[in-house]
Amino acid sequence: MTNNDVIRSVRYILNISDQKVIDIFKLAELDVPLDDVKDALLPEEEPNYLRVDDESMAHFLDGLIYFKRGKDESKPKIPFELPMTNNNILKKLRVAFMLKEADMHEIFELAGFKIGRAELTAIQRAKGSPNYRDCGDQVVRYFLKGLTLKLRK
To answer: Would the pLDDT of 93 be above 90?
Structure first.
């Protein structure tokens, strides 16, 4: 799943404009021109399509957390984990939308995807952990689909 797909999905879930996407990037201290946002939201086959790199994606997800939860200026900024993996994307979305484990299971069930408790915790562990498991594209797709169903009804 591409970074562009995730941004497109989040934009749809929150029903926000291109300008609000720019504002989310700005919350994480990245200035993105409107034309770049529009080009990033285009389908891949379009000639003006602009691929979102991992660093920009990290800024977007951090900005999303600030947008949804507020920014605490007293806390130091956490450095990005690059490259951006599906595991990182899922963790940051969970934080941004303030989801607990039960909420995550509900979201996956809404999307018609069964995921066990052990598997869900394994994809949320740190990369060096003995029980760590890579999160596949399909898991993120189902999560975004379930989140859309839950929030957009």
So the answer is: yes
Q: Which residue range(s) make up the domain with 33? A: 3-69
Q: What is the tally of structural domains in the chain?
A: 2
* 26-31, long-range: CB < 8 A, 24+ apart: 26/63, 27/62, 27/63, 27/66, 27/67, 27/71, 28/58, 28/59, 28/60, 28/62, 28/63, 28/66, 29/59, 30/56, 30/59, 30/60, 30/63
Residue 9 CA: distances (Å) to CA of 12, 21, 72, 76, 127: 5, 12, 26, 29, 25
pTM of the model: 0.93
